[in-house]
Amino acid sequence: MTSRIWVRLFMTTLLIGAVTTAIVGFIINWNEYVHYFTDFRIINILSALFWFILWGLLYSVISQMGYFAYLTVHRFGLGIFKSVSLWNGIQVVFILFVLFDLVYLRFETFANQGESWLPYIGLAVLLLIIGSITAWYKAKQTNREAFIPALFFMIVVTVIEWFPVLRVNEEEWLYLMLFPLLACNAYQLLILHKLNLKSQQERQRIESKRTTNKNTNVSKKPSI
Question: What is the C-alpha to C-alpha distance for residues 179 and 162, in angstroms, rounded to an integer?
Fold first, then answer.
C-alpha cells in the first residue's frame, strides 16, 4: 500500500470513529443531554461533542492497531499451518470460545442474584450478527475463503479491543466503545482490498511514467 493511500485509510477511519462515537454518545446519554438542545446551550453541546470525538479518535486508533495486528497474525497462521482450511478451522474454535466466554464469564463475574442471562446472551448475539453480515459481504466482494477470517476479526479481535471496557461492565461505556469499534473494523475490513488494488494501479502508473521518461531521455541523447 502506498503512503498516500495509507494516510487516506487512517484519516477516514479516524473520521468514522469520531462520528460514530458522537452519534452513539448522544443517543445513549439523551436523557442527560436533551435539555442542552431544548435550551439551545450551544457551549454545552459543543463540549459534549468534543468529548465524544476525542473518545472516538481513541477508539479508531485502537481499531486500526487491532486490524494491522490481525493481518500479521493471519499471515503467521497461514505460514505455520500451511493450509487455509486448517487455519480457518482453528479460527472457528477461537470464535466459539470467545463468544462462550463473552456470555459465561461476564455472567459469572457481574450478574446479580437472580439476574437473567438474556442481556449477556443478547450482547454476544448482536456481535455475532453484525460480524456475520460484515464477513458475508467481505466474502461476496472477494472469495468464500475470506468469510471465516473476516468473522474472526469482527468477533475475536473486536472483543480483545473491547476488553478494557468489558472489565468495567458499565453499560454506557460498553455500547459507547462497541459500536465505533465495529464501524471502524467493518470499514477497514471491507475497504482494504479496494485500496490495495488502487495502490497496485498507482505503482504501475508511476513505473510506466518512469519507463516512458527514461526512454524519452535516451532518445534525446545526441549521437556522436
Answer: 10
| Count of all residues that appear for the chain in the document | 224
Question: How many CB atoms are closer than 10 A to CB 133?
Answer: 13
* CB under 8 A, 24+ apart: contacts of 90-96: 91/148, 91/149, 91/151, 91/152, 91/156, 92/148, 92/152, 94/152, 94/156, 95/151, 95/152, 95/155, 95/156
Alpha helix (H) residue ranges in the chain: 3-28, 30-38, 42-81, 84-110, 118-141, 147-152, 158-168, 171-219
- Listed as ranges, residues in the chain with pLDDT below 70 are 1, 206, 209-224
Contacts of 60 (CB under 8 A, 6+ apart): 13, 14, 16, 17, 18, 180, 184
Cβ atoms of 37 and 196 closer than 8 Å: no
Give the residue among 10, 139, 3, 126 at the shortest CA–CA distance from 67. 10
Q: Quick one: pLDDT at residue 189?
A: 94
Widest Cα–Cα separation across the chain: 97
pTM above 0.90, yes or no: no
Sign of CA dihedral 65, 167, 101, 173: negative
Domains of the chain: which residue ranges? 3-195
Question: Are 18 and 176 contacting, i.e. CB atoms less than 8 angstroms apart?
Answer: no
